[in-house]
Amino acid sequence: MERTIDCLVIGAGYAGAVAARELAERGEKRVLVLERRDHVGGNAYDCLDESGVLIHQYGPHIFHTASKRVYDWLSRFTRWRDYQHRVVADLPAPDGGRMQMPVPFNLTSLRKAFGPEEGKRLGEKLIAAYGA
């Protein structure tokens, strides 16, 4: 029996996996995916190490989107882990100690740097001038 394919996709990372799935589902194409690794997901791959600890095999990866459509589409294939990424600067505090300041500088930074009242006043002034 002769088997035919309509599309050949090289690589099963984010782009290849999504392209192959869309071609197969919406395009009703017979798709062959070639991947040199023994898993899909490209560099965004998690696995258990020899001690049973879940690791990022190729380094950290964070996915984020503001698109509900993209989130819903991907949610068919994965469970999400809640993660919040916060960057702070460790700075000298007015009292001689240390304080952590959100980076990039934002309205919270103003309140931390200038106190709640003055920070609020300055924040309102910036929003009035430049918008939220």
Which key terms come to mind for this protein?
4 helices, 6 strands, two-stranded antiparallel ribbon, two-stranded parallel ribbon, 20% strand, alpha+beta, 132 residues
Explain how this protein is built.
The chain is α+β, with helices and mostly antiparallel strands. Helix content is 33%, strand content 20%. The strands form 3 sheets. The chain has a two-stranded parallel ribbon. A two-stranded antiparallel sheet has the order 3-4. A two-stranded antiparallel sheet has the order 5-6. Helix 3 (107-114) packs antiparallel against helix 4 (116-130). 3% of the residues are buried.
Show the helix and strand layout:
Layout: E1 7-10, H1 14-25, E2 31-34, E3 46-48, E4 54-56, H2 68-75, E5 87-92, E6 98-103, H3 107-114, H4 116-130
Parallel strand pairs: 1-2
Antiparallel strand pairs: 3-4, 5-6
Helix content: 25-40%
Low-confidence stretches: none
Please, what is the average pLDDT?
91
Percentage beta strand = 15-25%
- Secondary structural class: alpha+beta
**Gross morphology:** elongated
Question: How would you briefly describe this protein structure?
Answer:
The protein has 132 residues and is of the alpha+beta class.
